[in-house]
Specification:
Elements (H helix, E strand, L loop, with lengths): L23 H10 L2 H5 L9 H4 L6 H23 L6 H10 L8 H14 L9 H12 L13 H6 L11 H7 L5 E3 L5 E3 L9 H9 L10 H24 L5 H12 L2 H6 L2 H6 L5 H13 L6 H20 L7 H21 L1 E2 L10 E2 L2 H19 L2 H25 L10 H15 L9 H18 L3 H11 L9 H4 L1
Antiparallel strand pairs: 1-2, 3-4
Helix pairs in contact: 1-5, 4-5, 4-11, 5-11, 6-19, 6-21, 11-17, 11-18, 12-15, 12-16, 16-18, 19-21, 19-22, 20-21
């Protein structure tokens, strides 16, 4: 099979015979929905495991389903307002289903841990990134009958799956052409730091081929990718509040104190210098730090009056109205929560508009300034009052050790000349796949044979561990430490 010579939005990475009359985007959507990587998301933590919270919470699968539903509605609304088909809803839906495939066990904690291990212990300069792992699954790790690797999706769906359409080796010249987009920051020394990206260097050629068939500017999202990205933000801002209100984790008193502490002294907060605000611990200081961060990172849209309105609205509708009454599982409590969730999602969906590419921080579609401020304030509640909890931090440190123990033990096993042949077959296949990909890199970027062997082994270990569910990661860690109590079940699971 060969790469298509003249790529278009409907071109696949490898030639294949299409079903007569079939919509290529629907074929892509079905391939993603039937992927074992997609099914796996039901057992991967979104933020916390249900066993920790004591209540049903979103996992990566339920989150992906809701992102897809939100994204499709936004795409259809954009087409209605434009009076033309400017955004394909099925391409958007497929990208939304795919967008979290690359998340490793234990949520964002797992992503951070694997990135650190990949860079500091495994020698992978492009590290680990959940978005890049998603693209790698779609184009290299998953399988379909009629392609040598990957799901052989169309160019449009592959490009839409790339929230951050560049690799970590993107050149400064490319960044300078439009200015640093969201996901790339300029350091105080003037250098650029790529902290978000959607493709590893060994998968870059595929993304370049996919985007060649689309009318998109360098480093810019496709319109379908931008809609998927916004839908992810909308779902994250609302459904995590839903989760932790149900679980009783969102404690009304400290949240109310934070909001009142800022709203009661808005003018005084604005007058204080940055160093003083950074060091301040009193209620209201965290919201003031958020306001300043938004102005610093996104001056093209950040507005003090819009921020004040957003804080006031979230205080009234979330803090004062919803959280003041603890969730007790009653039908009336369910109704209040459903009304809150539906109202905010509808507002955000209806606020999405096409926009000109007049700033590197914006994509071809964007939330209205008002809605953007509201999303940021809702996300603040989750970050400040859930992710910063000491009890969650303690649990996450244990999860980090589980992943580190597995990565290190697999590396040691692969170095054991006497026992290397008994490593899991899938691990050896993933290493072989990475070895093939390194060999196909352009001459100027191709590592030596010895370097490629080391890199392939490292990438294979990361691919293997990242593809586990939370439970499988725990089982592997226990087994490889000699503590497994279900020996004969391991072969099928790992």
């Amino acid at each position: 099979m060969t790469l298509s010579a003249a790529p278009t939005a409907a071109s696949r990475a490898y030639d294949e015979r299409e079903t007569v009359g079939a919509d290529p985007w629907s074929i892509d959507l079905e391939r993603i929905q039937f992927s074992p990587y997609f099914s796996r998301l039901s057992a991967v933590t979104q933020v916390v495991s249900p066993s920790i919270s004591g209540a049903p919470v979103h996992n990566r699968l339920t989150h992906s389903l809701k992102v897809s539903a939100i994204a499709r509605v936004v795409a259809l609304q954009l087409n209605t307002r434009a009076g033309a088909d400017v955004c394909d809803p099925t391409v958007v839906e497929a990208a939304a289903y795919a967008h979290d495939l690359g998340h490793p066990p234990f949520g964002h904690l797992g992503e951070t841990t694997l990135d650190r291990l990949a860079r500091t212990e495994l020698g992978l300069t492009d590290g680990f990134e959940g978005n890049a792992q998603t693209y790698r699954i779609l184009t290299a790790l998953d399988v379909v009958e009629n392609a040598p690797r990957g799901l052989n999706l169309t160019a449009a769906v592959r490009a839409a799956s790339a929230k951050y359409p560049w690799s970590p080796s993107v050149s400064a010249a490319e960044i300078e052409r439009i200015g640093p987009p969201r996901g790339i920051r300029r350091s105080p020394d003037g250098a650029y730091r790529v902290h978000k990206y959607s493709v590893y260097d060994i998968d870059l050629a595929d993304l370049e081929q996919a985007r060649a068939g689309l009318d998109v500017e360098p480093l810019r999202q496709s319109i379908e990718g931008a809609v998927m990205d916004l839908a992810d933000d909308i779902a994250y801002s609302v459904h995590d509040v839903d989760d932790f209100y149900r679980a009783g984790i969102l404690d009304h008193a400290p949240i109310a104190a934070e909001f009142r502490g800022w709203l009661d002294d808005v003018i005084e907060w604005r007058s204080r210098d940055d160093a003083e605000v950074r060091a301040e611990l009193v209620p209201g200081a965290a919201l003031e730090r958020l306001r300043r961060k938004m102005r610093r990172d996104d001056p093209w849209i950040a507005d003090d009056e819009a921020f004040l309105d957003a804080v006031s609205d979230v205080d009234a509708e979330l803090v004062t109205d919803l959280l003041a009454r603890p969730f007790d599982g009653s039908l009336s409590a369910e109704r209040r929560l459903a009304a809150f969730t539906d109202r905010w999602i509808r507002r955000f969906q209806e606020s999405v508009r096409l926009r000109t590419l007049d700033t590197p921080r914006s994509g071809p579609v964007a939330l209205s300034p008002s809605a953007w401020h509201h999303v940021e304030v809702l996300k603040f509640v989750h970050k400040r009052f859930v992710l910063s909890r000491p009890d969650l931090a303690i649990q996450q440190r244990g999860m980090s050790r589980i992943l580190a123990r597995s990565v290190r033990a697999l590396g040691e096993w692969l170095e054991d000349d006497l026992d290397r042949a008994r490593t899991p077959r899938r691990l050896r296949e993933l290493i072989a796949l990475a070895r093939e990909q390194y060999a196909l890199l352009p001459a100027e970027r191709r590592p030596s044979d010895a370097e490629a062997e080391t890199l392939a082994r490292s990438r294979g270990i990361v691919d293997y561990v990242a593809s586990l569910t939370d439970a499988q990661a725990f089982t592997l860690s226990e087994a490889i430490s000699g503590r497994a109590d279900r020996l004969w079940s391991l072969g099928q699971r790992l």
